[in-house]
Fold this sequence. Notes:
The chain is an alpha/beta fold. The chain has 21 helices and 22 strands. An 8-stranded mixed beta sheet has the order 16-17-18-13-19-20-22-21, with helices on both faces. Strands 6-7-8-3-9-10 form a 6-stranded mixed beta sheet, with helices on both faces. Strand 19 and strand 20 form a beta hairpin. The longest helix is centred in the C-terminal third of the chain and has 18 residues, at about 450-470. It starts with a strand and ends in a 6-residue tail after the last strand.
Amino acid sequence: MGHYLEIKNLKVSFRSYEGLKRILDIDELYIDKGEAYGLVGESGSGKSVLALTIFKLLTTPPGVIESGSIILDGIDILKKKEKEMEQIRGKKMAMIFQDPMSTLNPVFTIGQQLIKAVEKNQNLRGKEAYEKALEMISLVKLPDAENVLQKYPHELSGGQRQRIIIAIALSCGAEFLIADEPTRNLDVTIQAGILKLLAELQKKVTVLFIANNLNLVTLTCDRVGLLYKGQIVEQGLVKTVVKKPENDYTKMMLQSLPEKEKNDKYGEILLRIDDLKKYYPIYEGFRNKATKWVKAADGISFQLRQGETLGIVGESGCGKSTLVNTILCLEKATGGSAIFDGKNLMKLKQNDLRLLRKEIQIQDPFWSLDPRWLVKDIVGEPLKVFEKKMSVKDFIQKVGDTLEMVGLPRDGLYRYPHEFSAGQRQRIAIARAIILEPKMLILDEPTSSLDVVSQEQILLLLKELKKKYKMTYILISHDLSVVHYMSDVIAVMYLGKLMEFGNSDAIFSQPKHPYTKALFGSIPSIEMDNLDEIVTLKGNVPSPINPPSGCYFHTRCECCNEKCKNEQPELQMGKDGRQLACWFVD
């Protein structure tokens, strides 16, 4: 009996000005029915190209399938015409794409797009299709499903959009699922739930799980293959490959982050946040009157010293990005104050605030790289705004020096973002953020979607830049290992409130708040034997429009009692110096 999916002698190249460049050269890869196969490799190794080739969505040209065969359940995919593939995609095989913003249509609501997938692939109509769409939203742990269906993609957070992509793929009811980095941009609690969901699906679905690190596939897959420069360099049973790796590349992919350096040299207080609030009105009724409020950031207070790094963690929609945007005055605060370098940002005039932003920069690898601009214009734009008298020669020199500082070649000045790998684009975003030598840098997911090799390089670069410029960092990340490695202090947020705040090492070694414990317990590791060891929080995140009474976390907390349900705990200083908002933790 043959394999369910069998790939043989597959050679895929891309046309360029230099001729054909080989991207994939796979001798053999097979997956049996009901099996989960993990494909792991760093950025640019050819993982997504393989997925698109199997799905027959590879753009040709520039892509060229030189030779090989892809047999899916007896069907020769490469010989099928597009009309025939339309009947196979969805009903026979589905795919979780890794970029929700380019996958979701911005002009249609989530409901329209999800219901369309249900109608096409499951032959349901009207109320039945709508109820199936609600079921899919609940399956991926999104609260307030009916409200989500009415929203447009831009109204959801990155993690929420990723879950919508997963819901659309699962709604097809296909028997073969390609999961291309399905937990990208997801927080650890949702990631744990998705991993368990994929494990449950294996009973009736065959899965190709594509990831950039081995931690994600060890607990969900039966076999694993390591893809390096388009070739499978090692494959076999997951436990065998992880415990007894033979190839040097596999050993490198198993490496962890370097040991964290202790930092106790801090300056004066640079940023002080007092009772900061950001509420969004919900308008209802004929008079369009605000009847409810979403408290995205509610009474946040902390201080940050010069040279210190603050890591902000929490599930998608907890208020991390809103808090940072409010501090930067990109969102108007509802109340409270933010004192930066002795100046109250909330009371500055627009022109003074604009000048002060030279000292506070934000690094965002997703939205700061205009695909139509050359790298010199992307990285040098802050100079054009704040250093208008700089000559062209000095401008090019400064931008080139900054590129070299972040480990990029000077000739990259005249290239476009798409000509760089994911890790290199992260470096471009960092170069743009540091070119003005700011006092404080906001790092928004600086290592998202990077493999462990590129991730380590970026983190070491950020550490080096911090020492050189004596910068203060505020780090937002779903990857808790990154937060631990980079941060001196950690803020744990839930539904707009701080649950725990204190020293990074103390919190990671001994978390006290039940929510913090659940976050850290959700991190997958190659040392774990099975998925049951991963903590999965019960229930969904409550709707921020109608949060629960008392402690917001009590609906998901195993320690709660009547006091938790009726009284909201305030953030209190504990004996060890950390702050906690919990009735039952000293």
